[in-house]
Design brief:
single chain; 3 domains; four-stranded antiparallel beta sheet
Length: 472
């Protein structure tokens, strides 16, 4: 089962897009617009009934050519009393509350509706219409730029299903999802890691009318900026649909540098991390030391002030960018979403473009038993079973540093390890300078000691000393 997106509804009823921002000054205009939305949802359900085998609306029609009456009989049998069911009961059904709210918020925002307008839509009986209306719906589906039905030239009022590359998901029994445009239980679960998705898949729908599964994800972007973030994501989605993805030019405020500037970048993917959305892109960055430098960067979506697509021949920089990203008319793997995922797996931290190093950590036995043991963390978070390996890491890393004071530190650390041989030691590959790494170490607080590397140990020590002074 799935929910129709704004894009899908506007493809079915193009008038929605044309009138979306048009002032609705009187009740007649409002009612007309609400009828368009209801009609779009009805068209979508009819389309689902033909092509989405997993849909509650799907009906089997044996004949190649069929008329509207045949379809009505099938649907009325599949969903008894369908004409008296409200739109919200047909469409939202057993969806989690947060899913329902998200879809409703999108409708309100896109079409500038009031809560009362939305309730009027949800309470409507979209199938309490005449056969003539349904026949007109069939005609509409056959007249779309990308037809959903084919009208017979010889059999009056008869149609057949479309079987073409435009509906290329037939083999997967899910034609409607060919543009990845519709939110479904299955594809939203794919965004979660395997451990989360297993439980979520079991409990995503209501049980006896009650939602029993919730995900509390912090999202710190101010409400006033959330629509803008959604707009940027929607723009990027449309760019990524293109066969040849072009670079974009953005105006961006960097909080760390406290500067606003224009950057030409090649957008690759959006990630939710550290309580906000980031656009990972390759090109110019706030961190670059020269105008010639091209590198990776994570841009906070709400800090993008403007965004527009530009051509590859826009400037010498875009031409240089293209020569680096494109390889034999294909995107070089080093600038693909898959590459980013590979880099995230190599080391802990979301700043995958930073260099990585290995840290050595010590947990006391009690904390380890209660909070670390039998937990799944980053793949490089590995327990060191042999205390001699711990000592070897200390000696090798500190001896490589040209600093006599750190040689003294080496002896202190080795002595500490000898006294704490019953404690538990872990090593972790991490991205140097990644904020998420530092926040993870701070959250462990006094329950963990950073032994290596020396600069990270010094950084955590300085933080703890400053924190201590606040409470003196």
């Amino acid at each position: 089962m799935s929910l129709p997106t704004i894009t899908t509804l506007e493809e079915l009823v193009p008038e929605l897009a044309r009138l979306a921002n048009y002032p609705k000054s009187d009740q007649k205009q409002i009612d007309n617009f609400l009828n368009l939305i209801q009609n779009a949802v009805r068209l979508w359900i009819i389309e689902q009934s033909f092509y989405d085998f997993n849909s509650d609306f799907f009906v089997e029609i044996d004949q190649e050519w069929f008329d509207c009456i045949t379809w009505i009989d099938k649907l009325w049998t599949k969903i008894p009393d369908v004409q008296n069911k409200k739109l919200e009961d047909l469409l939202l059904g057993e969806y989690p509350l947060f899913y329902q709210q998200k879809w409703q918020e999108q409708i309100i925002a896109r079409y500038q509706l009031s809560s009362e307008n939305l309730q009027q839509i949800l309470s409507s009986h979209i199938f309490k219409v005449t056969q003539r209306t349904l026949r007109n719906n069939f005609k509409r589906l056959a007249q779309l730029n990308q037809p959903k039905l084919i009208k017979s030239a010889s059999l009056k009022g008869h149609y057949k299903k479309v079987v073409s590359s435009s509906l290329n998901s037939l083999d997967n029994c899910n034609l409607i999802k060919h543009n990845n445009d519709i939110i479904t239980e299955n594809n939203w679960l794919s965004f979660l890691n395997d451990g989360l998705s297993t439980i979520a898949e079991l409990l995503t729908t209501k049980i006896n009318g009650h939602q029993r599964f919730f995900i509390q994800a912090e999202y710190i972007v101010p409400e006033a900026l959330q629509d803008k973030v959604a707009d940027w994501a929607d723009n990027l989605k449309e760019f990524w649909k293109q066969s040849l993805i072009s670079p974009i030019k953005i105006k961006y405020y960097s909080a760390s540098k406290n500067i606003t500037n224009y950057y030409i970048i090649y957008p690759v993917s959006i990630h939710y991390s550290q309580r906000a959305y980031y656009l990972y892109a390759f090109g110019e960055t706030p961190d670059q030391n020269s105008s010639q430098a091209l590198q990776w960067y994570g841009y906070r979506l709400e800090r993008i002030l403007s965004l527009k697509q530009i051509a590859w021949d826009f400037s010498d920089l875009t031409k240089r960018l293209r020569s680096q990203i494109h390889k034999n008319d294909k995107i070089n793997h080093l600038y693909s979403p898959d590459y980013i995922q590979e880099q995230l797996e190599l080391a802990y931290g979301f700043s995958f473009y930073r260099e990585f190093n290995t840290m050595l950590l010590r947990f006391d036995q009690d904390y380890y038993q209660r909070h670390v043991k039998n937990t799944i963390r980053h793949s490089t978070f590995q327990k060191i079973e042999n205390i001699q390996e711990v000592k070897k890491m200390i000696i090798e890393q500190i001896d490589s540093e040209i600093d006599n004071t750190k040689k003294i530190q080496r002896e202190k650390l080795l002595a500490k390890v000898n006294c704490a041989s019953e404690d538990v030691y872990y090593k972790l590959c991490y991205r140097v300078g990644d904020h998420n790494v530092i926040m993870r170490l701070r959250s462990w607080g006094p329950n963990v000691e950073v032994i290596l590397p020396s600069d990270l140990r010094a950084q955590i020590k300085e933080y703890l000393e400053k924190n201590y002074k606040l409470y003196q």
